[in-house]
Amino acid sequence: MEQAKYVVGVDVGTGSARAGVFAASDGTRTGMATQPIRMWRPHPDFVEQSSGDIWEAVGACVRDAVAQSGIDPGAVVGIGWDATCSLVALGEEDAPVTVSPTGNDAQNVIVWMDHRATAEADAINRQGYDILKQVGGTVSPEMEPPKLKWLKAHLPQSWARTRKFFDLTDFLTYAATGRDVRSLCTNVCKWLYIGHEDRWDRAFYEAEGIGDIFDGRVGEATIRPPGERIGSLTPAAARHLGLSTSCQAGVGAIDAHAGGIGLLGAALGGAADAATGGERLETVVALIGGTSSCHMAASRRPIFVPGVWGPYYGAMVPGLWLTEGGQSAAGSLIDGAIETHPAYPVIRAEAEAAGETVYQTLNRRVAQKAEAQDLADTALLTRDLHVLDYHLGNRSPHADPHARGVVDGLPLHTSPDSLALLYLATVQAVAYGTRAIVEAMNAQGFRIDTILAAGGGTKNPLWLRQHADATGLAVVLGGESESVLLGAAILGAVAGGAHPSVTAAMRAMSRAGETTPPNPAVRRYHEAKFAVYQDLYTLQTANRARMRQADNYGN
Predict the structure, then answer these.
(1) Is the confidence at residue 278, as pLDDT, over 70?
(2) What is the pTM of this model?
């Protein structure tokens, strides 16, 4: 009897590394572990990490997850990877090189959410390069070219010392195999690599003064699609991960894209290949929620959406184009609204006394307040309280890193109930941000009628209800709650030979879960609130223009 095959998925998010063990046959999870990752914020808009710390956390996670699963480590045939789109700098003998004004070499990762390169992004965008068409017309400070440009200008010694620049996912596969094979996903989405033509636009990099990255720091690397086998683990990596050297490592993906892979298999059904499944995929969007959120949609032809990243060929589902919307602050914004409110200590103590999460406590307060006011739906509590969720800028559909958050209708109240209302309004704002992205996609040719959702927010029933009602779309959870980990494991299953292709592994290992349908009774209410949401940005844009005109006055 053939031994059962298992695969490991590794996910490196913003604040932690995670690993999961899955049965290669059907995607059943048998073990999972998490380790925190250190983070430094030396200045406002600067966010840094350590690749060494991340690799240590990954090793601890994988060893723990395999131990939890109770399987023989030798039964793990493949390992797949995903991570945030953070920039890693390595020097001679792969030693870390600082990207920090502190000069600490341990701080060698510029985290995706770091916005130090906003001015560099603005400068690139003013040039109107043709290559920007594949990122919705505007490069983001979260992408790698602006970060590289900042690093060369502000830390020239670090630039000179660096021998390799990696997206974080590609650093992980390099650490695991010793082979410099980069992901088509990371390079197309964050480095402006032209995937459908299999080439770099070197003229763009030369024009921006960073063409010397092709002196071996990235230019000599092989770029391959997610899931393709790179090779077996090195002996050192196998010891570190608690696996065998027969385990095969696959090309990785960005974390949100792994979540799309883990979710979208539920929409493929019994289709024979990606092209057949593509028509159905054009009617669903994978919403991967977390610190930020990403909205992943696949299509059979390239669909250009202003202010939305892509289309990227083969960056997620092989043979299909990827369009990627996103919100720079989602879970982090909800947490921030809660934790900065004066009543937060009261709510936290109440939650601890009840043995529940802060979100459960707030959800209960929201429900009780709606009942006390005899309201037909809890959403109606925020009739006069509106939030614009652009506190960290807008990624999509406005592509405006200078945008900022707004709270309209904030009273001079500091009670726990006022926190509950602000929490509800902030969740609604995040949901309206998703609606704006979906509407922008549909206006250009998508036919999205369903949200497939995964991530932290999906564990919160209030988050699910507000997203379904605010968008007017059904929200379907993945059958596996850890869809990002599952997506990474799917890539590992392909690398390990358990499935012949990514799409075959998606069909075998992913499935749909519970559905939250929209409530038609509150449709008109959310239409009105969404109009207010849009007006808040329109007014902010006008106010910014007015103040720019006043810059030379009063000096």
Answers:
(1) no
(2) 0.85
